[in-house]
Design brief:
CATH architecture of the largest domain in chain B: 3-Layer(aba) Sandwich
Number of helices of chain A: 7
Low-confidence stretches of chain B: none
Oligomer: heterodimer
Strand content of chain A: 5-15%
Structural class of chain A: alpha+beta
CATH topology of the largest domain in chain B: Rossmann fold
Structural class of chain B: alpha/beta
Distance between the termini of chain A: 28 Å
Largest interface: A-B, 48 and 64 residues
Number of domains of chain A: 2
Largest sheet of chain B: 5 strands, mixed
Largest sheet of chain A: 5 strands, mixed
Number of strands of chain A: 5
Shape of chain B: globular
Order of helices and strands of chain A: HHHHEHHEEEEH
Order of helices and strands of chain B: HHHHEHHEHEEHEHHEEHEHEHHHHHH
Number of domains of chain B: 3
Strand content of chain B: 5-15%
Strand order of the largest sheet of chain B: 3-4-2-1-5
Number of strands of chain B: 9
CATH topology of the largest domain in chain A: Glutaredoxin
CATH class of the largest domain in chain B: Alpha Beta
């Protein structure tokens, strides 16, 4: 049935969703992962994403939006190709987390929740990433860079700019 | 990738496979992998629960509830299916231990989930990881797939006629989902707001069925307890605090890292010997002993054993075992503001004392920090925090109020110095608290 329908997702994501709605005792349990995987695929949660996910699970679009607005990783607007997330929570704060954030701001020329004009980078100050003993830490999309020094951070951002950065999906 | 550290005082039970390549199922099998669950199938639920009770293991998420007792609360007969739920939503600032378990020993989590399932008569377990842990989710997913391929999961596991399935789940960014009932809501595809208790999850949990929910570290410890015996495990720790724990030492120490130390291990020694002392030879100012929600300790209060009871007696908590060390250069007002900013950001807004309380605490501390505070703001902070305590569905309200009270009570002079213009912020306020 799903195969006959048009989907806005890539074939891999569509296939994943076909399976995801079958593995739980209740279909709706797939909602949070589906939203995150949809975002990975499309870049953000667009109106079309909300509509298709609502239909796949069999809930209303309002139900989807209600959940969407709760989770801090989910976003309704596009970000840069490389979303740079800097932790400034206590363990990172004690080990130059704010200097790390400042360095990112200067180097990328953007502030919190802003995107570079070329669409390559966006920046966000985030809460604890669970990497406290290896502070300071930055997460680029899903990849962590820990025990950062100014030199290491420079190299991480340069690598992404030149297309040599890691990309865990 | 997070680096591993080591110290001679460590007792490596849970972490003995770290750095050994045990995410590979063959290596895990070489290192006693899946032996405990086979013993559990053979000897049955009563034996499992008796060993868990004898072990003295207490929940590693932070509350410290005895695990064996928790498992024994699940009714034997149930009209609805029973579930095991593994909480890998690790989000308490200062805590990064589950990160290492998923990275180095994912099969221990799987095996522990199966053991919990056998103990309570469940056929389905969920392993829930926070959304940011995508690379770890992939490691766990591969481990689950390998276990299925070997016939360790699915129908008729190990050829014994027992069925057990595991589903992995990703969150999408929410501290509150680390609370057990909020996690169940999230897993049911809803906003992660807490449920009122009772009924407790052991009776009415996920999908309304009896549910055991444990922290990932608790679950990963279960196979080791069955292998070495509950009593032997208990002996490693202190009184009523069995075994070892993964303590994360972060902040201003020379050798930050995650160390496996016996329960009851001396906090001062953990900082000065294991963690290598204060960075740059500076003086110690304060210690947050068990994650950001636990009340701060002064340098003269740290000659104390790291277990649930001793820290409780000292007016703090063992919490999640995340020890955050502050040297003399730290402004407590700034640290308090960063802490409350986090809780204000993460409050789900369901209970008014938490939603309003965290917001007003942040505003009040923020005003003091910015140099516009008044003497009465300090008393207001205490009044607000004291009135949040115990008045919310879940412990997030307490988690925000308790550390705040600790800072204001133990470092009142610093708050007064800001009010009286004797101290001032070096960081603009907006940078520290305006971002969220």
């Amino acid at each position: 049935m799903a195969a006959e329908k048009t989907t806005i997702f890539s074939p891999e994501t569509a296939a994943r969703f076909d399976k995801l709605v079958t593995i739980y005792p209740v279909k709706r349990s797939a909602l949070v992962p589906m939203l995150l995987y949809a975002q990975d695929d499309i870049g953000y949660i667009s109106d079309a994403v909300v509509a298709e996910i609502a239909e796949r699970i069999g809930i209303t679009e309002l139900d989807v939006r209600n959940v969407l607005s709760y989770y801090s990783m989910l976003r309704t607007k596009p970000v840069g190709k490389y979303h740079v997330q800097v932790c400034t929570n206590i363990s990172c704060m004690l080990r130059d987390g704010y200097a790390t954030l400042d360095q990112c701001k200067k180097k990328l020329g953007i502030g919190h929740k802003e995107t570079t004009a070329d669409g390559l980078f966006s920046l966000e100050e985030v809460e604890c990433l669970g990497v406290c003993c290896w502070a300071p830490v930055v997460q680029v999309n899903y990849d962590f860079y820990d025990q950062l020094t100014p030199e290491k951070l420079d190299k991480v951002l340069d690598d992404y700019r030149e297309g040599r950065g890691k990309e865990t999906k | 990738m997070p680096s591993l550290v080591s110290h001679p005082d460590e007792v490596k039970i849970l972490s003995r496979r770290f750095g050994q390549g045990a995410a590979d199922i063959e290596k895990y099998l070489e290192m006693d992998g899946y032996k405990a669950v086979q013993a559990a199938i053979e000897k049955g639920p009563d034996w499992i629960i008796a060993e868990m009770k004898a072990s003295g293991l207490r929940g590693r998420g932070g509350a410290g509830f005895p695990t064996g007792m928790k498992w024994s609360f699940v009714p034997k007969q149930s009209a609805k299916p029973k579930y095991v739920l593994v909480n890998g939503d690790e989000s308490e600032p200062g805590t990064c231990k589950d990160h290492l378990i998923f990275l180095h020993d994912p099969h221990a989590v799987i095996e522990g989930t199966m053991i919990a399932g056998l103990a309570i008569g469940s056929k389905l377990g969920f392993i829930y990881l926070r959304g940011e842990y995508r690379y770890l989710l992939k490691i766990v997913e591969k481990a689950v797939a390998d276990a299925y391929a070997k016939g360790f999961l699915g129908k008729n596991i190990f050829g014994t006629g027992v069925d057990f399935d595991i589903v992995t789940q990703t969150g999408a960014g929410a501290y509150e989902v680390g609370e057990e009932s909020a996690l169940m809501e999230s897993l049911e595809g809803k906003r992660g707001v807490p449920r009122i208790k009772p009924p407790f999850p052991a009776v009415v949990g996920l999908y309304g069925g009896p549910t055991v929910i444990n922290n990932a570290e608790t679950i990963a410890t279960a196979p080791h307890i069955l292998l070495m015996g509950g009593e032997a495990y208990a002996k490693v720790g202190s009184e009523r605090n069995g075994g070892t724990r993964l303590f994360g030492i972060s902040g201003h120490v020379e050798r930050p890292g995650v160390y496996e130390l016996p329960m009851g291990y001396n906090l001062k020694r953990a900082i000065y010997e294991v963690g290598g002392g204060i960075r740059g030879g500076k003086k110690l100012k304060a210690v947050v002993p068990g994650g950001s929600s636990t009340p701060v300790l002064l340098p003269e209060e740290i000659d104390i054993g790291l277990d649930f009871d001793q820290l409780g007696k000292a007016g703090s908590m063992l919490g999640s075992g995340g020890i955050v060390v502050l040297d003399e250069t730290v402004s407590i007002v700034e640290f308090a503001l960063r802490t409350i900013s986090f809780y204000q950001h993460e409050s789900c807004g369901w209970c008014i004392p938490c939603r309003e309380g965290t917001d007003w605490l942040k505003k009040s501390i923020g005003r003091i920090y910015a140099g516009g505070g008044m003497e009465k703001d300090i008393d207001n902070i205490r009044y607000l925090a004291e009135n949040m305590m115990g008045r919310t569905f879940c412990p997030l309200g307490d988690a925000a109020a308790m550390p705040t009270l600790g800072f204001v009570k133990k470092f009142r002079q610093e708050f007064e110095d800001y009010v009286n213009g004797k101290a001032r912020s070096e960081t603009p306020l907006l940078q520290i608290s305006g971002a969220h």
